[in-house]
Amino acid sequence: GAVVSQHPSRVICKSGTSVKIECRSLDFQATTMFWYRQFPKQSLMLMATSNEGSKATYEQGVEKDKFLINHASLTLSTLTVTSAHPEDSSFYICSALNGGASTDTQYFGPGTRLTVL
Amino acid sequence: GESVGLHLPTLSVQEGDNSIINCAYSNSASDYFIWYKQESGKGPQFIIDIRSNMDKRQGQRVTVLLNKTVKHLSLQIAATQPGDSAVYFCAERTGANNLFFGTGTRLTVIP
Which of A15, A30, A86, B2 is the most exposed place for a label (fewest CB within 10 A)? Predict the structure, then answer.
């Protein structure tokens, strides 16, 4: 099946710093990628939809200037958490839509655990 | 977003028994539904999907049932194994390709 990777898998940073998370589709091209956030014991919340070569579409309540998304190629999307604060600590998960597949399945990455001190 | 909960319902079953996990979705316009399995510290793993023009779909040891009248989705796991212990999420597609996840259910299999 299609594989999606994320890097790093775990990051700890100081308050006020910025953190970049990469999401890669390893064996398919993804014109659309999604970024989710998951707090402990809660469901996944869609943050934004990332389309290759265009601006990301953010869900209501998600600050686009704080969560910068770049989808510069068909296999890579990045999420940068700018000026991170402890309340940004969460599990960030990306998914990619296999545009070449006959189904609409989103393939999820393994997630990135962000801890802001 | 769609239905999102603040705590996880739990389900405990004996190894070898069948499990039924339920999900109520909120958008009657949703046309595609997916069940995901999420183990601790990992991303969701696709289990099975179903489109709104169907009411049942079977996979290996899993069956998904869709009742559009009451906006209800269920996942049945046959002969549940310890490796099935995880959190299970249903997701509904609204709009182009956006998925919205349900609350999730924690399944614990008792050996």
Answer: A86
Tens digits of residue pLDDT in A12-57? 999 999 999 999 999 888 888 999 999 988 899 999 999 888 889 9
pLDDT profile of chain B (111 residues), mean per 10:
56 97 91 93 93 95 96 96 96 79 93 92
Q: DSSP 3-state assignment of A87? A: helix
Q: Which chain A residue's Cα is nearest to B37? A: A108
The C-alpha of A112 sits at a distance from chain B's nearest C-alpha, in angstroms, of 9
Angle ∠(B92,B94,B97) on CA atoms, nearest 5: 95
Interface-testing mutation among A11, A24, A43, with chain B (most B C-beta atoms within 10 A): A43
**What pLDDT is recorded for position A103?**
57
Q: How many Å apart are CA B98 and CA A45, to the nearest integer?
A: 11
